[in-house]
Protein 1
Amino acid sequence: MEQTPKNFRKIIHIDMDAFYASIEQRDHPEYRGKPIVVGGSPEGRGGVVATASYEARKYGIRSAMPSKRAKQLCASVIFVRPRFEVYKDVSRKLREIFHRYTDLIEPLSLDEAFLDVTHDKQGIGSAIDIAKLIKQAIKDELQLTASAGVSINKFVAKIASDMDKPDGLTFIGPSRIEKFMEDLPVEKFFGVGRVTAEKMRNMGLHKGADLKLLSEADLTKRFGKPGKFFYKIVRGIDDREVRPDRETKSVGAEDTFPYDLEDVSEMMEELEKIATILEGRLQRHGFKGRTITLKIKYHDFRLVTRSQSFPQGVNDKPTILATVHQLLIATDLEEKKIRLLGISLSNFGELGERVRREDESDQLKLF
């Protein structure tokens, strides 16, 4: 480790458990103990799952799964219409709880945030004790549960919060970090999607310990700029600060497909799923952007983007979908196989509220 004990940060990552679904089960007793999903459509006729309750997850149902697939996995699953205003109100109450202990709060979404409690407001001193107090306040005041990860940097705290869900608290202290990172599967590293993970495994790189054997130059040569991040993080080094004033510059969603798309109608079907997710994110946060961008990655990994700007901000699915359709057909699709499609909205200007968010959370992987 390159840090000394006196300058260790105390970072907490709070992640609500099945946030939307838990709120619905809290507010509707008839849903408790039953497999429910928020989003999608009854009878699995279209749309995608926004959140699945833990009862639904036992059947393999996951966020962003097509509702048709969710219905196939669990015939008795209950589809619930999302109530974003309610979720936003709960999120505001969460922030009020966080602010009792620190003003260094960096929300990643409505249901998760980083907190820097190195110098907490109440002089408690222990990040573990603060995490316990926050979790208890969430239970007592909101009748919901959260999982917490506690460590000396953002990356490890975020990984830790997912280790004992639901209602968990995991502390990974300085002496444990390097061993923890060595044992971490490569697909758990930020920046490692399915394609990169497969590439790594083909190179014999399965865990952090394997990455640690490579020099920074080797990692950068093989993986580009993320290689520098991999080199540091596998050694437990993450100097990123909790940034309460970070402003979202773009919001996007994308999907990498298990096979190459060759049919335009199939491409549009996938783009509709992506646009549905994107519309929900934009409208939850009150964003309207002037620039819509279509991202295409071909089977040979060639990446192209096409954009269209508007005089006024937009955030509705029909406009987004019509725009990316035109952008798609304007590209050279002859004998081209597509492996990834993505849509993003940017150029918010004064049209979007300022939110605090970590860079890497701005894109949503659909599967």
Note: The first strand starts at residue 11 and ends at 16.
Protein 2
Amino acid sequence: MSLKNTPQIRTGRPGLVQTTSADVDEHCAQLGGWRLTYDQISAGAFRGSFTQISLPRLQIFREVTSQQVRQYGRLDADCFSVGLAWHSGGPLSLNGTGITQDALVVSFDADIDFCTPRAFELRGMTLSTQLIEAIAGQLAIELPADLKHRMRAIAAPADALRRLRAALAAMDAVLGAPEEFLHDTTISEALQDSLLLAITDLLPDARLCDTRRSAAARKRIVAQATEMMLASSDQPLSLLDVCKAVGASRRKLSYCFQDVLGTSPVSYWRAIRLNRVRRDLKSRRDPRDGIYDIAVRHGFWHFSQFSLDYKRHFAELPSETLRRARMDASSQFRQNSFRH
């Protein structure tokens, strides 16, 4: 079986998960049980890695993705997370609003809608909402208004951000330490305390980044357009139809998409449909379906152009995706037969 797109998972140490993948769906599936969906928006071979260290009361993570990705869904229930762009190949978009790279991405038991650029690395931590509320109460810290049940961008003082970066950078030392490191309660508690202290340093002076009314209007237009596109993936639909439905000119719609998602309406729509084709090829829900059948189902009528678009987007032909799916299914069948 080819290992080109097979996720590599290493869990030799207690409390440590490390994965690498050359497929955006498989990468997403390894994200610590988070209930997210990733769509690859930019074209090219995908490479991703995810590392998570579980401490007694929180998790620290590092995620690296090579292509522009739209992430949406939810983290674990009652989860508070803080993320910081470690390295970024372009602008970020959060809930349809562009944010600066030094802004904190905070999710407080909320839905996720995050568009990341190419060559992106995110570091952060997750803990329970009960724990962050308890810490805030014990230290008489007032959490920013309008934070709960939302994903927001938060600005914080430069010195507090430096301390958070230093605490998150400790992950590198952990990964390079002997295997016994995470068995040492004193060391793991010290790492956890440094992370919690870094968060408490941020909270008193943290403030919500400006969410302008115009940004909300742009996001609303894009949300209406994308909903229409996704609902009509197997039906003829023109850009003019979309413009009429959302009440925006082609120029305005293009501006809104570029600002919210960092791409054009046509490119986004094609990327979403290509992601759907790829998932159908991998799942092979109906073995009788051929590549052309699946392509047509998602609105690709010109097969040779579809094949070119698919290869440009995923760096492989649709026939290669289908061949690997068949090999994986055959391998799984043999394994199940051997067990029985």
Note: The chain has two domains: 8-208, 214-332.
Protein 3
Amino acid sequence: MLAYNFGAGHPMSPLRLDLTARLARELGIFDLPGVSVGEPFVASDAELGTVHGSDYIAGVRAVSADPTATSEKFGLGTEDNPAFAGIHEASARLAGGSLAAADAILSGEVLHAVNFGGGMHHAAASRASGFCIYNDAAAAIARLLDNGVSKVLYIDVDAHHGDGTQSIFWNDPRVMTISLHETGLTLFPGTGFANETGGPGAEGTAVNVALPARTSDAGWLRAFHAVVPQLAAAFEPEVIVSQHGCDSHLHDPLTNLRLSVETQRQAALTIADLANTICGGRWIATGGGGYNVVSVVPRSWSLLMSVAANGRIRSNTPVPEPWRKYVKEHYGEDSPPMMGDGVELWWRSWEVGYDPNDEIDRTVMATRKEVFPLHGLDPWFD
């Protein structure tokens, strides 16, 4: 999976995957009872074709064979998406990881599956965007639907709007996409506002909470719990697919949200609880964005895997010393001593009341007013 490499200096460094796997191994997550580690396969053109156009796949293949043959039409060879030899195989392997997760869920072999190398949520049907070539989460959702799953809920907690996944299922009432992200007024891709609610016949299945820059733990958790559980219960999915980009962290260099690792872990815990309550535990989690590759990403995604594996790693668990030593020796950086950031989580529930003077509350209410009535919910009280 480290072959997904846009080159030195690019924010999407494969180092984040290597360090995450090393930390998870040191924490013993891969050795927990009931946990298996699978090898991702390279998705076929037919499998990619369930969510991407054949012309686009052919375009990626052409650039993969000759990186000088860049294609602005398909968003390849840009500053965000530099061309490199083997880009098709590398991108299709990330997609294969999420397809393998879907297959394991469908077979009943597992209830929870994690592809922390996935979450390429900006990739649209016929265009690369935002460091994303093939949309693995969308491919996994299509696999579930093609094999008898009636409805899938997609929850995206990346700091950036999950625009590619939303666009792919814009007209499909079987898929609800919920994205909580920094507002497009201050962050790429500039989309994801409350009035984006789905196409004809699928109204209310695209849900967007566009949070103001500098939103911190309490405000983010209030917004999440004011929108996601209510719609999840109303939609009644058979499987939840979630994207856990951790670029919402306070120390991420590319975004303006102010979350802690504790909040990112809490999001995973809540999504796991929703899966257990609503869809028999069936849950696929992916990675996504995350550009503080040493201090934040490995901790956040190791905690995600621990949640999925029903492990007992908490925010106050010490980071294993061998991992910290490895990071210091190889990258010259001091890593945090604990898995969390040492914060106490608290948030004001929506039941306490709506404050029209609060910018986050106004954002939440805008979303609830747009979407809740379409599902028989009252935007003020449910």
Note: The first strand starts at residue 112 and ends at 115.
Protein 4
Amino acid sequence: MDAFFASVEQRDNPWLRGKPVAVGGSRERGVVAAASYEAREFGVRSAIPSVTAKRKCPDLIFVKPRFDVYRAVSQQMRAIFAEYTAIIEPLSLDEAYLDVTENLKGIVSATEIAEQIRAKIRAETKLTASAGVSYNKFLAKLASDHRKPDGIFVITPKMGPAFVETLPVRKFHGVGPATAAKMNRLGIATGLDLKTHPLAYLQEQFGKSGPYYYWIARGIDERPVRADRIRKSVGAENTFSADLFTLEAARDALQPIVEKVWRHCESAGTRGRTLTLKVKYADFQQITRSWTSAAPFATRSDLERQSLELLECLFPLEKGIRLLGVSLSSLDEDQTNEQPQLSLAL
């Protein structure tokens, strides 16, 4: 989906249309969870502090998130997907992989299916979606970002390897900011640069991720679309463009991360017992703090409360925080009707 949270807000409030909108924290504190395309023209992006966003775009309008509405729209989209294939691998509320090799409508063209899905999403939700069509997950992901917003792009087997060679590695799905920076230090700026290095070298530099980088540089990705994949953990993290120094700012920044983890749990019907807080400081030192419950976390409030307790133990700070992450492991199937709640909602 295109600027999903912000687009929903602009759809539901005509006054916001055509204006720079940020979904998330307040003007003084907090972190941007999503930005409209009008805001992105000023350099406003998700995960940046709200004060930085306001400095970049003085006319920026902040809107409180409405996750119940976003989830409802997501369910509409999933229902549309299910008309075409049962092989759906959700990535988040607004994104999924679909395997349409053998689809429910017998349509031979994946591009035609993508166009039909985009048209149905527009008709039923009044929102726009972008699609990437290709022969593997890595290239489909690249293609989905290539013509945003409201676009479609197709990468055929013939053009796949050459397309990868021209792209900066920072645009590769699976290459985060820290990895991209390391690659650049090693002289790897594009897919072609990555392709020149042997597998052994990439394994030496990037460990278990080395083989993945080796093959995607050649346009090869054998991972299947898995509707029934079993997760060992569920997590989310944000890297901030400006370091966080106060407990208030860190609390605000943690909210959308906790929300994202809980959404994963809700959509997958799983609950976890072990909570891990990940913190990376301004000097790139990284620490984790974990807590294991006797029973799976039953509510989002439980997860938020325990995450905040782990976070508060780190204050006062000696150095700024550049990244926060939350993950749940020791996953069980959803048994919320059988498990007692750990605490009252905050």
Note: The CA atoms of residues 273 and 293 lie 5 Å apart.
